[in-house]
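Researcher: I'm preparing a figure for a lab meeting and need a structural model of a single chain. I don't have an experimental structure, so a prediction will have to do for now. The sequence is pasted below. Please return the structure as tokens so I can convert it later.
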Amino acid sequence: MKLYEKTINVQPIYDGRIIHAHVDDVELENGSLSKREVVDHPGGVSVAALTENNELIFVRQFRYPYKKVLLELPAGKLEPGEDPFEAMKREQLEETGTRGENYISLGDVYPTPGYCSEIIRLWACRIVGDQQGLHLDEDEFLDTERIPLDMAVEMVCANEIPDAKTQIGILKTAFLVKNGLI
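Model: Understood. Here is the structure written out token by token.
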């Protein structure tokens, strides 16, 4: 059982619309017992949508847990059974009014592995065509803006963008551009 924790019991404590929480009894590799608090999340997607002028399209929106407006790459929650790639394209169109081509996977991100099962799947793409209108959910309010990729990298390094998925998406996209891969 090296490094593995065996689940002994699962005690549900909250069943919400998006998240579910439970406290599990686990057996550790040395045989002792412990508890793990877990938040199950359906996962999400995000896209670094790059213009022909190497600008990224960002969204600014209020994030209630932090009581702040954050600058982020377009992103969204996966619906049950939804294909992550299709979900990402849906979110890109809804939040930025753009479509992409030559999508490149930037991999998966585990934002809080100590207690949450959420996995965020990241992509980068080049935008094709003109920007269309936004198609936001009725409870979704945001502004979009374009920021040159080099400036976005500087903003990450200056701690001006605290969102983890956005930092990762920016830095990986900058690597792709630098190496002529996108």
